[in-house]
Amino acid sequence: MRDALEQLAQRGDRRGADVVREAALGRASRRRIQRRAAVTVLAVLAVAVLTSPLWWPARHQSSTGVVTTPPDIAAPPVRSVDIEMPLATTDGWRPVLTIPYGPGNEQLGVDREFGPPSAKLSADSFIVLDTNKGRLAYYGDDGAFTGATPLPGGAQFVSAVDGGIVISGGPSTWVLPSGSSQWLAAATVGPHSDQTRVYCCDDTSALSIQNGRPVVAAAQGELTSDGRRFHVHRDAGPPPGEHVSPMLEVRFLDPQPHTTRLNFRVDGASAPVDFVTDYAADGYGNIDVFVYGTDAQDQLRAALVTITQTGEVLPVTAAPSPFGATETGPYHLTTGAGDARLVIGGASGLEVWAPSPLTDPAAVPRAMDLATAARCDTFHEQAFTADSGADGSPQAIVACRIGEARMAIEVYADTTALEAAIAADPRRCGTRVIGDRWIVHTNTLEASTLVAQRLGGQVEPADNC
Amino acid sequence: MDRGPDDAALVQTFYEGWRRLAAVIAPLEVEPDDLVQEALARTLQKRSLFELDDPDRYIRVVMVRLAANERRHLGVTRRWRQQQRDTSSVRDAYPSDVADLCRLSPKVRAVLFLVEVEGWQFAEAAAVLGCSEEAARARAARGRHELRRALIVEER
């Protein structure tokens, strides 16, 4: 090892101390000038804003001599919240899926350092940008490999959108329309930057075909699950030599602009620079932010922070940390229909972690028991569905198969949540069986009747398909 | 303010050590002198080296941070490059033990280099890494373990 280190220490072309110092002085000088220019521009802007009566009308005299009150200041309000970073933990979380690394077709390419660069949940599948094997790999919500599509070179991010899959990398964007196996180079409309993430269009891209060519419309900002625009700003002036600012801003653009600023802290002090963030819009209209890193004592810290559209920060949840399994991640936050899912590169595979049911940790076992009692041929928990029990959504869902019949067994927190779900579910086709805090959705009346015989409950045929 | 001559003498004094550390901790895609130069530029942008209590250590700290950040940044671009030229990896130009070394994080490489080759104490290396002495020891142990594991895999 010592020889290898020495060999490494000798590598590269040697320019000499004077050349390096002269170049550094030149670079430092240019940056000082740029910084001064920026400060000057900011100062001029600040003076203009502060002296303008429109922007700083503390009180002024009108032409009639009457003292008037100032109009509202136009600057959007900023809510600043200190986030005390908790120690990383797997308590309150559970792995719902592990895709193993390995040479097999159904396994992911091994990259001990970084893992797959991007992963995304779509409605019913887990899509992984498996650059190590040069493909986009698809998995079902039971972890079963369902297929793969070869990737064009340079892909870095994957997004699932209505109408297909979008991947991007550098200045290029490709589209795989639904039902096709052919990637198409896409034109993009709107701002395009590898810094602001708009081009990967997690939730804002609209896919269309114009003159035979796919066009991805990238909007400024991203969208919450109910269509409100927001923008996340992470790198607001990190100190020189530091990678990540210990601060993150979520800027809501609709309907009234406002900002929530998160200041990450450890024991009350500003957090160290190693903290890294990822974010995603969850299924409840909120923004979830995943933050992790190590503190000065090298203890792992990780948190999931949820910000509502009013800018309120919900209680922070301690989260598992990707550090330890690998040095630098991967660290993805993605969302399905409901809660956030953490995608973490484990030692032997890519792991998807979900928050455990908040209202009842026994919900998943109960759904499994129902599947057993219904004598399902095969069953598994649906890993991507909501499980918080919020807003009438189920705490757990288990997919079950009896012969050709497919069904979903949903477990609810209480009768109120069950009734809310019954009332709010007019869109689903098929039939259902309603029992004590559970619903089994099936695709045939015969299957519902069979389930009712085995579990009890009342069969409800669908009347709106 | 004339910083030149004073800084020049300091750079001359410490350059060799900085360059050796830079060569060890920088990603292979980055020239060691570029890392030294960037660390110097960021420092000189604010102050002369003579204004620092310990310019040698200060520049080393900046270099370690830059290397760690550069590595994160390169995580994505490196994969892209590998897609573009999968047969001509920069790593392939080096013997396998050096390539194994490069798979370790810059901070782990730094502590191994400073302690094993330069003969520093763990406490001194920890000061450069910005961590406790115990954490530096843990990093070195982790690095040795990783290297040993890589060697075992290769021997098989």
Secondary structure: elements and pairs:
The complex is a heterodimer of chains A (465) and B (156).
Chain A lengths: L1 H8 L7 H35 L8 E2 L5 E2 L9 E7 L8 E8 L17 E4 L4 E5 L4 E5 L5 E6 L6 E5 L2 E6 L2 E6 L6 E2 L1 E3 L16 E5 L2 E5 L4 E2 L5 E5 L13 E6 L5 E9 L2 E2 L5 E6 L5 E8 L5 E8 L9 E2 L12 E5 L4 E6 L3 E7 L7 H11 L4 E4 L14 E7 L2 E7 L3 H9 L7 E4 L3 E5 L2 H11 L2 E3 L5
Parallel strand pairs in A: 3-19, 13-15
Antiparallel strand pairs in A: 1-2, 4-27, 5-6, 6-7, 7-8, 9-10, 10-11, 11-12, 14-15, 16-17, 17-18, 18-19, 19-20, 21-22, 22-23, 23-24, 25-26, 26-27, 28-29, 29-30, 30-32, 31-32, 31-33
Chain B lengths: L3 H22 L6 H13 L10 H30 L11 H7 L3 H12 L4 H8 L3 H23 L1
The CATH class of the largest domain in chain A turns out to be Mainly Beta
- Total domain modules of chain B: 2
What global shape of chain B is seen?
A: globular
Q: Strand tally of chain B, please?
A: 0
* N-to-C CA distance of chain A: 69 Å
**What would you call the structural class of chain B?**
mainly alpha
What does it look like?
- The complex is a heterodimer of chains A (465) and B (156).
- By secondary structure, chain A is an alpha+beta fold.
- Chain A has 3 domains: 2-73; 79-355, Neuraminidase (6 Propeller); 363-460, no CATH class.
- Chain A is 16% helix and 36% strand.
- Chain A is built from 5 helices and 33 strands.
- In chain A, strands 3, 16, 17, 18, 19 and 20 form a 6-stranded mixed beta sheet that branches.
- The longest helix of chain A is centred in the N-terminal third of the chain and has 35 residues, at 17-51.
- Chain B is globular and about 45 Å long.
- By secondary structure, chain B is mainly α.
- The model of chain B is unreliable at 73-91 (pLDDT under 50).
- The interface between A and B is large, with 55 and 62 residues.
